Amino acid sequence: MKEQLWIALKMTLVMTVLTGLIYPLAVTGVAQVFFPKAANGSRLRRGGEWVGSRLIGQSWKGPEWFHGRPSAHNYNGLASGGSNYGPSNQQWVAAVTRRAGRWRRVTGQTRPVPADLVEASASGLDPDISPAAAAYQAARVARARHLPLARVQALIRRFTRGRTFGFLGAPRVNVLELNLALLRQR
Amino acid sequence: MSVYGVAQFLFFLVVLAAITPPLGRYITAIYEGRRTFLSPLLSPLEHGLYRMTGVNPERESNWKQYALALIGFSLVKTLILYALLRLQYWLPLNPNHLPGVPPSLAMNTAVSFVTNTNWQNYAGETTLSYFSQMAGLTVQNFLSAAAGIAVAVALIRGIARRQAETIGNFWADLTRGTLYLLLPLAFGLALFYAGSGVIQNFKPNLHYATVTGQKAVLPMGPVASQYAIENLGTNGGGFFNANSAHPYEGPTPLVGFICVLSFVAIGAAMTHVLGRMTGHVAHGWAVWGAMAFLLAAGFFVAYHFDAQPNPLLPAAVAQARAPGNPGGAMEGKEVRFSLGGSDWFAVATTSTSCGDVNSMHDSFAPLAGMVLLLNMMLGCVGFGGVGAGLYGMMMLILITVFIAGLMIGRTPEYLGKKIEAREVKMAMLGVLAMSTLILVFSALGAATPAGRAGVYNPGPHGLTEILYAFASPTANNGSAFAGLNGNTRFYNWTQAICMLFGRFLMIIPVLAIAGSLARKKICPPSAGTLAPQTPLFAAMLVGVVLLVGALNFFPALTIAPILEHLLLHAGRAF
Questions:
Q1: d(CA B452, CA B469)
Q2: Position A2 confidence tier, pLDDT thresholds 50, 70, 90
Q3: Residues of A with CB below 8 A from B363's CB?
Q4: pLDDT band at B549, cuts 50/70/90?
Q5: Nearest CB partner across the interface for A85, out of B225, B253, B363
Q6: A67 CB near a chain B CB, below 8 Å?
Q7: Where would you tag: which of B44, B125, B237, B474 has the fewest CB atoms within 10 A of its CB?
C-alpha cells in the first residue's frame, strides 16, 4: 500500500504538469495565434474604446434602444446565473406579470409580450432576443429615434441570425449589434 | 414540441450511432495495449511516465490491488486539491487576487472533482484563481474520467477472461486512457471551442463602459481548455457559475451540439468496447439500444411537459410558439439554444453523469424537472458517465439476467459466465447504496432546519430541490437545482459523503464482480440462456432499470414534482 501511495503521489504531480499546465498553455498558445479575437472574448470597439462583447449582454435604459432579456443579476459580468425561480413560485409569477404589464404600457401595445422579454435568461448575460421580441420593440425605438418603422424593421431582419444548418438552435437577434447599427443610422 | 427540437435530437442519435464503432475500436486498441495511429507520438511519453512514476505496466493485479490503487490515488488527489484550493491566494496565476477557499467548501469541491461529480457550491468567476481552475480542476477532470474508464475496462476484462486472477494494471490503464484518448480529443475540442467564441486567455477581468455609459465587466480566463475536458470526461464543472449557459462557455448552438456529443460519445463507445472485448459485438449494440431508448424517452417526456403553457402566467405573456417566437418556457433558458436544444441538453447531461448545464433546471416545468431528477436516480445510465455509465448499467444487466433466470428456474448466465450469489449480492449492494444515500439524506435535509435553510423555492418544489441536491452528488452527476444554497456546512458535508459513497460503493462492488467473473470458466449457452444480443434482452433491461427506479423513488417523486404539477394545473402558486 505504501508503494501504491508513493506512485499515486508521483502520478498526480506528473499529470498535473501534463494536463494542468502544458495542455492549457498549449491550447492558449495556439488559440492566441489563430483566433485571438474569439479567444479574448469577441469584444467590440467603438471610437477606440471597448464597448462590450458581442457575446455578453448588457443592460439598456430608455426607449431609443432595443432592450435585452431580464437578468437575474442585472447583467453583472461576475455573477452569471438565472433566477432559479420554480414554475409554481408566486414571486416569479408576479415578476413576470409586472414586466409584461410594463412592456405593454411603454410600447402601447395590447398584443401578448414574447416570453423571452419577460422571463430571465439562464446566464443573466444572454446577448440575444428572439425576432418576435425585437419586433415587439420596433415601433417604440423608431418613434424615439425619429426613424421610419420600416427602416428599423429592416435592421432587425438584417441582424437576425437563423438556425445553424437550418435546424440547430433558434433564430435570434444580437441586441448589442442591433443597437450599434441604430447608432450608425443618423 | 417543434419539428426543429425533434430534428436536433434525431440528428444527434444518428451521429452518435455513426461514431460509436470507430471510437469503440480505438478505445479497445488502447486498453488491449495495441499500437494506434498516435503511438509513434505518444508511446515515448507513455514510457517516460512509467519510468518517472515507477510503474511496471506489464505487472497485472487482482481486483483488490486494483481497487486499492484507485482508492489510494483518489485519497492523494483529494488532499492535494484541498491544499491547492486553500492556498490559492499565494499561488501563481491569480490576477483577480482571489482569497483562499474556505475549509468546508474546499473539502466539498475537492471530493466533488476527484469523484467525477463536479457539484459546485461556488461561483467559479469569483471564487477560483486561474491556477486552481487549471492545475486543480482541469487535472481532476482528466484523471477522474480516466479512472472511471479504467474501472469499466477492468470489468470488461473480468467478463472476457477465463480462469484468470488478474484484471489489469490500474496505473497503466489510467495513463493510457489519459494520453491516448482524453488528451488528444480534449486538445482538438478545445481549439474548436476557442475558435467558436469560448475564451482562452490569462488576462485579468476587463472593466469597460457600456454603450449607454454604465460600468460593466467582462470575465476572462482559460475556459476552452477546461470546457473541453469537463464535457469529454463527463465531469461537468463549469468555469463560470452559469456553466454552458454562459455565452463565454456556450457561445453558439453548434458548440452546444458538439458539447453534448462529446459528453455522450465515450459512454456510448464503451458499449462497443464491451462487445468487442468479449466477442459479442451484437450484445454491445443491444446495450447501446437500451441506453438510447432511456435517453430518447427522457427527452420526449421532458420536452413535452416543458413546452406546455404555464397556467399561472397571465394572458399578457405570449406562451404559444410561433415562427420567431420561442414560446413560453424561457425562464432560465438562453434564446440561442431554443427550448428543444435546452431540454435535450438537460436530459443528456443528467442521463450521462456530466452535469454541465445550458439552462437552469430549477425553472423547468415540474414534470420536465422530474425527468432530470429521475435520470440521476436511475444511476445515469442513458449512456452514462465515461466508464461509470457502462459499469453502472452492468449492475442492472446482472440483475436483469438474474430475474430472467428466476422466471424459468435456471442458474442465470451472462456471456458464458454463471452468475451466482456473490455477483448478484454485489450488484444489489451498488443499487441499494445509491437509493439509500439519496433517500436517507433527502429525508434528513427535509427534516432538519439546516437542510431546509438552503431551500429557495417554496412548496413541493422545495422538496424537489432537496432530492436533487442529494441525487446529483450520489450519482456523481453535478448538475443542480441551483436555487438551493448548498454552500453551508450541512450540505457541504452531507453531499461530500454522498459523492464519496456514491462513487466507491459502486466501484468496489464492480471490481469485486470483475475479480470473481475473471476466475470463472466459460460455459456454452444453454436453451435457458437469455440471448444477450436480442431486442428482448434490451427491453428486459429497460424494464428492470425503470422498475428499480420506480420502486425506490416513486413515493418521493409523488410528493415533490408530481404534486407540484397537479397543484400548478389546479391554479395553485406558492
A1: 12
A2: confident
A3: 82-87
A4: confident
A5: B363
A6: no
A7: B44
